[in-house]
Amino acid sequence: MTQKQRPGRRFPWYRFLGTSALVMALGAGSAVAWGTPDGATSPSADAASTTTTASSATAVTTPSASYDAATRHDGEFNKTFKHKFATVRGVRMHYVTGGSGPALVLLHGWPQSWYEWRKIMPALAKNHTVYALDLPGLGDSEGSPPSFDKKTLARYVDGLLRDRIGLDKFDLVAHDLGGGVGFQYAAQFPDRVRSYVHMDYPLPGRELPAARYRTFSWHMAFNSQKKIPEQLVDNPGDVREYLTGFYPQVAYGGSAFGGTRTKSPFTEAETNEYLRTYGRPEVLRAGFELYRTLDQDERDNTAAPTVDTPTLLLTATGSLAATQPTLKPKLSHITRAVEIPKAGHWLAEENAKAVTDEILAFTRR
Hints:
The protein has 365 residues and is of the alpha/beta class. It has helices spanning 75-80, 121-125, 150-165, 177-188, 210-213, 218-223, 228-232, 236-249, 268-278, 281-292, 294-303, 320-327, 347-350, 352-363, and strands at 35-36, 49-52, 59-62, 81-88, 91-99, 103-107, 129-133, 170-175, 193-199, 311-315, 334-339. The strands form two sheets. A nine-stranded mixed β-sheet has the order 1-4-5-7-6-8-9-10-11, with helices on both faces. Strand 10 (311-315), helix 12 and strand 11 form a beta-alpha-beta unit. Helix 3 (150-165) crosses helix 4. The chain is globular.
């Protein structure tokens, strides 16, 4: 189903769904070796790669030659950071690393990639060896895990960090749905997480059932539907309409926070980087799967042990009071909880300095 087959469609379909406030959501270990030999080096910029997913015998060809499109000509960035790949149970995972000092791992949310950390990585790298990951199936990672529930994704992250990279202990920072992965990582592998920074993600569980979670925003309900999102967001033009319409809604002053903002918080170049990856059908589907698995996340989080890792909670302006109660029963050692000033959901991009200062002050303790 393409644009040409829908000549009468003159406005983005999602505008008719409504834009109710996100309220609580945004506004108010296994001993098995998961890693497999891969070389863990950047691929040739001239070659695309073909990957067979873990859940399918169908080969998926993806434009991996563009993995460094946003940084290829950034000489200053490339002095410190390198793009690398490693295979974990049939999923070829992409990550960007650089710096010196104790290891610091960054997990992104939706609809973003490792690139959401781009503004704060140079400052973090002065004190840490930074690892900014593309979650399995997202960004420039290739292949699909058997499920996109956050407990499963955390095991893939562990396969990369422990078995492929060789990290024993590190500081962990996670944003949005990446926070679901971050919590599950800390719950499953507590001995490996020195400190945890949880950014703007209410945790599905006993205090916040997935069914209620989905009522907070039209996008959460829509993304959770089977097949329908892919049928409606089915070409690059649709992806652009959807994401560029969504980004300002949950930015500071956007409709999710009771405002009227329509300007995106991202530059055209930043937006194009996210569109480059989510324009791939398999990545778009993986993003929707993050929401379709919220019911399993609720069950897994409810069953998970309480995490006593020292935790820093960062939220959008106005969201702390609604977010913190969903975390307290499972994160028992929240030593600091802060609303980032003049920031909506995109914390690291809307107020990079404040986020950087909070992370560095916390990890230095």
